[in-house]
Design brief:
By secondary structure, the chain is mainly β. It has one domain: Lipid/polyisoprenoid-binding, YceI-like (Lipocalin, Beta Barrel), CATH 2.40.128.110. Helix content is 11%, strand content 49%. It contains 2 helices and 10 strands. The protein has an 8-stranded antiparallel β-barrel. The mean pLDDT is 85.
């Protein structure tokens, strides 16, 4: 009787082990943008950084970060030139390390967020330069002025996200930089803004399915 009970317990234990789910595999981005399938991607608000890097009187670069951003990417890995990007940044989401300075920068003396609440970029051309790099050219509107801008884009990683399917879908992660002439958008050179401002973007774009 004891032998039968022990055999039954062992059988139940074995079936329990067999039914245990496999450990979750964390998906990793790959250095191949072709792994991100064609379709409409949206910017992931949990994985985005938009920074303006402004020379500080020749001593360093001051970093100003914008927390509010959204974007849509129409992507085709087999016809990159046909891809399109539309992105918006909320000027009032600006933060700095200096207490009270963000409010001053948002004021009429600088970015005038009350009158011009958003910066807007619309692409006009995508160009792939190699497997990991490309250029996105378009028009950037800031402080009511529109200027040409070209972002130098580096692929960080691409491919299926968590579950690799309808839950998290596919991901494209990039780093992009451009520079703008502060005087071209209406910032006075008397504000020590005499050299280009670098705009740096680090983000992920996600597509379900």
């Amino acid at each position: 009787m004891r032998v039968a009970a022990l055999a039954c317990a062992l059988a139940l234990a074995a079936s329990g082990f067999a039914a245990a789910p496999a450990p979750m595999r964390i998906p990793l981005g790959q250095k191949d943008v072709r792994l991100a399938t064609a379709g409409t991607y949206t910017l992931d608000p949990n994985h985005v950084s938009v920074e303006a890097r402004v020379p500080h009187a020749g001593f360093s670069l001051s970093i100003f970060r914008f927390g509010g951003a959204r974007a849509t990417l129409q992507w085709d890995p087999n016809a990159v030139a046909k891809s399109k990007l539309d992105a918006t940044v909320e000027i009032a989401s600006l933060i700095t390390n200096v207490a009270g300075f963000a409010q001053q920068l948002q004021g009429a003396e600088y970015l005038n967020a009350a009158k011009y609440p958003q910066a807007h970029f619309v692409s006009s051309a995508f160009r792939r330069t190699d497997a990991m790099h490309g250029k996105v050219t378009g028009l950037l509107t800031l402080m009511g002025r529109t200027v040409p801008a070209t972002f130098e884009v580096t692929l960080i990683g691409a491919g299926p996200g968590f579950a690799g399917g309808p839950v998290m879908g596919h991901v494209i992660g990039i780093h992009a930089e451009t520079s703008i002439d502060p005087n071209a958008i209406g910032l006075s050179p008397n504000l020590l803004l005499k050299t280009p401002i670098v705009i740096a973007v680090d983000t992920e774009f996600d597509k379900k399915g």
